[in-house]
Amino acid sequence: MGGRPVARSQATGSHDGGNQGSGAIITVLLRPLPQVTGANKGIGLAIVKDLCSQFEGCVYLTARDEEKGLETVAALEEEGLSVRFHQLDIDDEESIAAFKTHLEETYGGLDVLVNNAAIAYKGSATEPFGEQAENTIRVNFFGTLAVCRSLFPLLRPHARVVTLSSIVGFLPDVNGDEPQAFSLREKLSSEELTEDELSDFMNQFVERAKDGTWREAGWQSCPYSVSKVGVTALTRVQQRAFDDDPREDLIVNCCNPGAVRTDMTSQRGVFTTEQGAEGPVYLALLPHDVEEPKGEFVWHNKQVVDWVKGPLPGPH
Q1: Does residue 204 lie in a domain region?
Q2: What GO molecular function annotations does the UniProt record carry, in alphabetical order (predicted)?
Q3: Is residue 8 part of a domain?
């Protein structure tokens, strides 16, 4: 398939049966102007507030829903926080392009990007499994990939990229039928894996989900989990590219924020959104020229986890 994404819907917003995560992505311009996009609630909003509290400057928030995004910005301003807004839908290529143009023309570059968007279907969802898989992979994986491909050329030296993963983004969660699952895990963790090859794997899962043979192909029975495995593998691929980039000190990591009480989790979880924001903000503000973490799967408590073998620290 040459890394081509599954067909992208022009419709935006939550899919029937799905639950839109806390905004699209988060971007921060640390030097001239902090920017936060797609963070009108949940963990994203908590990250906005945390960033605002840690340095002077105006955080730039974007969201898929312009009206809700502007309402959130107004509420934050009433709290004394300096925030601006730009619409962004990671499931819409024109929206991504417009945001890139805005950043490039207004600021000339980008210093921090936090990928925060995701959808997840409830266990009670009645949509066919193949439909759930297609929608989830399109938004969570291919939407994130599209944003990265668009905005990475704007990254300045010492830029930081953070992608929100999950406990179910742990590689051993690829636990369908063996030996196919073992083969998938080996390929997804390969140091030679490319973005196009990873995209092909994500498309393969969608195809197998539609024809009912995903477990025989080695995949787990949770599209959200597959999407988070995908973005975590993508983080590793991207760091290898950053290591060869002429721009100095580019770092990307992914973070499991923990079981946070949000709309996506139906308010079931161990942590508050403020606690869930701690790990992503730590990674977003890594100082210049750190040796690690780079291209890592980082726990909410800032601990680096072996994505391939574990073990996983608790609590989750």
Answers
A1: no
A2: carbonyl reductase (NADPH) activity
A3: no
| Tokens of residue 191, six digits | 């140091």
pLDDT of residue 196 exceeding 80: yes
Domain containing 262 — which CATH number? 3.40.50.720
- Rounded Cα distance between 25 and 114, Å, is 6
Q: Is 224 marked active-site?
A: yes
Residue 43 covered by a domain: yes
Give the model's pLDDT for residue 57. 54
CA distance 148 to 141: 11
- The domain tally of the chain equals 1
SS3 state of residue 64: coil
Using CA atoms, how far apart are residues 13 and 27, in angstroms rounded to an integer?
A: 20
Asked if residue 7 belongs to a domain, the reply is no
Q: What is the pTM of this model?
A: 0.88
Q: Which is the catalytic residue, given 60, 107, 121, 224? A: 224
Which range of residues forms the domain containing residue 151? 18-172+223-305
